[in-house]
Amino acid sequence: MKCHIQIYHNDQWHTAAVFEPDPQTLDKGVEGGCRLEYDHDYAIENIAQASAELIPGLTVGFALHRYQHWPPFLVDLLPAGAGRRAWLKRMQIDNDGPQVEWHLLTKGAGHPPGNLRIAEAVSPPPPDQFKIGFPRKDIIEQREDFIEYAEERGAYVAGASSVQGEAPKYMLVEDTKGMFHAEGALSDDKIKQFWLVKFPRGRRSEERNYQVLRNEAPYLEVAREFGVRVDAPLTYEDGTLFVPRFDRKVADGQVRRLGMQSLYAIAGIPGYGAAVRHEVYCRAIAKVVNKPENEIREYLLRDILNLALRNTDNHGRNTAILRDGGQIALSPLFDFAPMFLDPEGIGRVSRWDNERPGGQPEWAIICENLKDILDPKETREWLAGLSSRVLALPDLMQQCRVEEGVMQMLYRRIKDVAKALQETKPVVIA
Length: 430
Prior knowledge:
With about 425 residues, the protein is α+β, with helices and mostly antiparallel strands. The chain has helices at about 40-45, 70-75, 80-90, 100-110, 135-140, 145-150, 205-225, 265, 280-290, 290-310, 365-370, 375-385, 385-390, 395-400, 405-410, 410-420; strands at about 5-10, 10-20, 35-40, 65, 115-120, 170-175, 180, 190-200, 235, 240-245, 250, 255, 260, 320-325, 325-330.
């Protein structure tokens, strides 16, 4: 029992590695033992070539890698949340649990984000009669029965159901005529743009679920003005959010698929939903990126903004690194929204080792803890200097059209975050 991992490298798909779960622990899913080795032909062609690695640090060669659990980068490929449930329904599996994860990997990991996929999960293109696609307005107007509608129009190919997270999300491609298809339904030369299309989380009758989705686009613009790395603007239209994909680049009829791994993957964290400290992520990031100091400052900036605007959904799969050839850095910001409004109540998953009661980090101590990456004195001065930018967030939010009701609930938090940063300023001794 084995499957083949493919990587998009040098503008084409290659069978790069063989993954074989331990039959004795297959029912344990991602917690079961396994082994992985690079395909020998692939290894011969790409020996020790960093840009050809499945993930940074997994050197291309002939070694057999044995694991007590599945490599965390494979978990990135699995459908999760609403997508997982959709795939189980499609496979007519009634009982969810670890025992289904091999099936999810080999059936539902044909078109995940990034530049990896499972060869066995790649479905052939649909018949010609299904290639007409469907217009943008049908996605919006028919959102309540979009799953059924999309399947009727050929969106049943692997990867169409959903990507990570609880909110219904669909990976779609737009052709040159403005019609939408499931990813995998078109050849690269017919694709104009790749999209992630999101609908509200949870019950559609809950206004707060719509409020979260409506404000994701303006939240991203606030982040852009604040100085965080972001990609193209998002578009919200009547309960539907259209998100341009940053892991796919289209130019002159050709598609570049960029490598993308979650923080869980690069930190080697197995399983799902682990509460991992920010310090662990910072060191994992510093080991793989080209410019560690720049990227850790970017990470700190994002956490400050998460704290100030109360984006509480900050687990290890809501931040990723992006690989474009030999360039490795944090991906543009994504899934940044007022998640404190979620009716289910979403608490911060990732925290710092030193936080005050109420969740404010002790930035001065954090600077000392990260002194192997950043100069503590310079970092403290930089953080203190951010205080005024944080205090200016209400003006930015108004400028970027964050809803007034959301803004009203953030003023106190913004002041608290700014105060904590100001206190980080080094003491000058005369």
